[in-house]
Structure formats: structure tokens, C-alpha cells
Specification:
Layout lengths: L1 H10 L4 H8 L4 H15 L2 E4 L1 E6 L25 H13 L4 E6 L7 H14 L4 E5 L5 H9 L4 E3 L7 H7 L6 H13 L3 E8 L6 H14 L3 E6 L16 H14 L9 H6 L3 H7 L4 E2 L6 H4 L13 H10 L3 E3 L9
Parallel strand pairs: 1-8, 1-9, 2-3, 3-4, 4-5, 5-6, 6-7
The structure holds S-adenosyl-L-homocysteine and iron/sulfur cluster (SF4).
Length: 336
């Protein structure tokens, strides 16, 4: 095991079967080494990204997600520009310098409306980064939003295996369209985050290795990895959630594979385990995403059951308790 960890740290790549061995291991050394690499590069500094869940309307029907259009149980909302700006104002006073606008694929927000929102945020908060996480959009749209000032975009590939992708999504969605969008984002100069759920139905260790190899090739600035968690009103209601150990091992392997990567300890990780975010950080994660969505709609942004969102103050307190420090800056990706 130690030989594999040494080699991954040195060469940043392993053979597929070797990756599987590490992903499946029970050894604390993997996570300890990943934490040491994180500390070498970032010290005890953790980046915060304020999450604004601006709409829970979605035209898609992903089998795993509670916001899918086929779920009639969800009370739908969308936020106005003014409401979004109020979230930013609140986040700014709490020291947040990145705002992530996340939502379902909601055609209500035209390109012009979104560009106006991005422009307004950038005008008022020149020292802040704007990240979008609004699903797949056309080249024209992505280009326009980049020109309006959007700095980053999060779009998980969800899986890098086409057959597995088809198990998670209805036929109108495809892995090739997803990946094309990711390459477009890169071409337009976004800092890009991709990623995937661990333990999604039908996923094998081999699929995770395919994701690692895609990430190697795609070379994103950020990778979001969290456990799949079933939502009661989806076709996957009866499925098992992703396993804590496998999520942590995946984070650790990613840290060793790409030492300067932005790696969030996700809300989903903090949901399957009360101290999941802290465990993620101890396995090499260096980003946490406090929630800025107004309390009256937060519960309606239900991707999965029992979502354990957390406010910035609580997150900062928890970081201090494990000897980490929340950075008050945009926290851009940097090359090492
Ligand atoms: N609509 C956009 C952004 C919102 S969904 C998009 O799909 O990209 C953001 C992420 O939530 C998805 O990429 C998915 O990986 C995650 N997600 C959705 N349902 C989930 C579930 N049941 N368990 C864990 N993560 C889930
Ligand atoms: Fe919509 Fe995103 Fe949920 Fe898919 S994962 S249903 S695109 S919100």
C-alpha cells in the first residue's frame, strides 16, 4: 500500500487496478498522506465558497435528483436579481469572497437576465469571484456569461462511463453532451470544476477509476466529490447511499494525483456523517461551501434527503476547532 501511495505522490498516476486497490483500502496512511500534501501547499488555509441556490426549477429528469421535473412534491421557487444580491451582501459581511449561483436547469433565466445578475454582482463586489453551477448551457450562453464576468463554472460529469451515465439519466441526456460542455467552459477561460457522486446506483470501482482518468485528461481546477444520497421522491428512493470510506479515499487519491486541486468537503459528505466535512478536510479537501440561501426556501432545494446545509459562522467555528483557518479572499486556483 505504502509503495502505491509513494508512487502516486511521485508520478501522479497509477495503473487502473492500482487505483482500485487504493480506493478500496482501509488504511489511514492514504488520507494522512493526502492531508500532508494539502498542508504542504495550502498550510491550514481552507477556502470558503458561498452557495446561493437560486432556483429549484429544473427541466431535466436525472434519476437521482429531488429537483427532477418528474417530482411533483417539490415546492418550486426562483430568486430575483435583488434577492440574489441580498444573499451576496449577507455573504460578504461574513467574509465570503466567492458566490456560487447554483440551480436546476431553469429556462426562466435567459442569457440576458443571467448576464445582468453576474454584471451586478461583479460591479458591487469587485474583489469577489462569481461561480455558476446551472447545468448544461449553449456555447453562446457560456461565452456571454464569461464576458459578463463569470469566473468559474461547476458542472459535474457525474460519471465518465457512457453506459453508467445512461443508468443515471433519461435518454435525452448524454455523457458526450456533458463532456462537450465541460470542454467549452475550458475554451472560454472559465476555471472549471467537474466531479461525480460516489456510490451512485450501478457505480463500480472501475467507473471511479474512469472518472480519475477523465480528470487527469481534463485537468480541471476543482473537483466536487460527494456521496450519492437517495431522495424519497425519485426512482432511486430505495438505493443505498455512498459509503463514507470510499468518498474519503477518493478525495485523498485526487489530492495526491493533483496536489493543487480545489477539493470541497461537500454538503453531501456532511450529511451522511455529522463531521463529514472535517473528515474530508483530514483526507485532503481544502474547500467548504457555506449556504447563503434564505431560510424560507432552503428546505425546498432538496437534491437529496436530510441535506445538512451549514452557515458560514458554524463552518468557521468547526474549522477553527480542527486547527484550520478560513481564507477571506477569492481563493483562485494557482499552479504549483
Ligand atoms: N443542475 C445543476 C446544478 C445543481 S445539481 C447540475 O445538475 O449540474 C448539483 C449536483 O448535485 C449534481 O451535479 C449532482 O452531482 C448532485 N446531486 C444531485 N442529486 C444528488 C443526490 N441524490 N445525492 C448526491 N448528490 C446529488
Ligand atoms: Fe436538474 Fe441538476 Fe437535479 Fe439533474 S442534477 S435534475 S440537472 S438540478
Amino acid at each position: 500500500m505504502r509503495e502505491l501511495i509513494d508512487r502516486l505522490e511521485r508520478e501522479k498516476i497509477l495503473a487502473p487496478a492500482e487505483f482500485e486497490t487504493l480506493l478500496d483500502c482501509d488504511d489511514d496512511i492514504l488520507r494522512q498522506r493526502a492531508q500532508a500534501v494539502r498542508e504542504q501547499i495550502f498550510g491550514n488555509r481552507i477556502y470558503l465558497r458561498g452557495l446561493i441556490e437560486c432556483t429549484n426549477h429544473c427541466k431535466n429528469n436525472c434519476y437521482y435528483c429531488g429537483l427532477r421535473r418528474g417530482n411533483p412534491g417539490t415546492q418550486r421557487y426562483r430568486m430575483t436579481k435583488e434577492q440574489i444580491l441580498a444573499c451576496c451582501a449577507n455573504g460578504y459581511t461574513q467574509g465570503l469572497r466567492t458566490f456560487v449561483l447554483q440551480g436546476g436547469e431553469d429556462p426562466y433565466y435567459t442569457d440576458d437576465m443571467l448576464a445582468g445578475i453576474v454584471l451586478a454582482i461583479k460591479e458591487e463586489y469587485a474583489d469577489c469571484a462569481v461561480t455558476l453551477s446551472l447545468g448544461e448551457r449553449s456555447q453562446e450562453s457560456l461565452k456571454l456569461l464569461r464576458e459578463a464576468g463569470a469566473d468559474r463554472y461547476l458542472l459535474r460529469q457525474e460519471t465518465s462511463n457512457a453506459a453508467h451515465y445512461a443508468m443515471l439519466h433519461p435518454p435525452e441526456m448524454s455523457l458526450s453532451a456533458r463532456q462537450k460542455c465541460l470542454w467549452d467552459l475550458k475554451a472560454f477561460g472559465y476555471q472549471v470544476g467537474c466531479g461525480f457522486m460516489v456510490g451512485s446506483p450501478g457505480q463500480t470501482l472501475g467507473h471511479i477509476v474512469e472518472d480519475l482518468l477523465f480528470i487527469k485528461r481534463f485537468d480541471p481546477e476543482m473537483v466536487g466529490v460527494g456521496p450519492f444520497i437517495p431522495h424519497a421522491s425519485t426512482p432511486f428512493a430505495g438505493e443505498r447511499p455512498g459509503e463514507l470510506r470510499l468518498v474519503l479515499n477518493t478525495i485523498a487519491v485526487l489530492r495526491l494525483m493533483k496536489p493543487n486541486l480545489l477539493l470541497p468537503a461537500t454538503t453531501a459528505l456532511g450529511t451522511i456523517e455529522g463531521t463529514g466535512r472535517e473528515m474530508g478536510i483530514r483526507a485532503g479537501a481544502n474547500v467548504v461551501m457555506p449556504n447563503l440561501t434564505p431560510a424560507n426556501v432552503r428546505g425546498d432545494y432538496s437534491l437529496y434527503d436530510n441535506k445538512n446545509s451549514m452557515e458560514a459562522e458554524n463552518i468557521k467555528r468547526r474549522l477553527r476547532a480542527i486547527g484550520c483557518e478560513a481564507v477571506i479572499s477569492k481563493g483562485d486556483y494557482f499552479d504549483v
